[in-house]
Specification:
single chain; mainly alpha
Amino acid sequence: MRTTLQGGLAGLLAGLITSLLWFVDYGPGNSLHTIARWFMLDSASAGKQVGFLLWLGLSALFGLLFGIAVRRFRPTLGGLLLLGLVTGAIDWLLVVFVAGTLWPHGHLDFGGGLYSIVPLLTYGLVLGSVAFQFQTRQRVTREL
């Protein structure tokens, strides 16, 4: 249970860190409209705030799933980074490609989906790195 909660916290922290990528790309927070558009919740006045909150929620959710997967094996830096990349790719596949492209439009917009794969893979790398830091801190605390 502790590993799952640490994964959720790592996901939330990774979401906060990578939200900066969404914030600075093409102006002050304009890319956050894309996240709100994935769920058809975009508006001209509150799209950035909705996108930011959705991103934090998705990050925490996929962090919890990452924490569940981490319980299965002994964590190493390489293993957690690889699992983080896989989590980012699954996030892209499920959220951006299926929910953001196929569901509302009914057709493939692969170019629009490729735009968001780099921040999501970066999210996965940051997720794995933060989770590794939590694991090593926990191990050091036990030894003291």
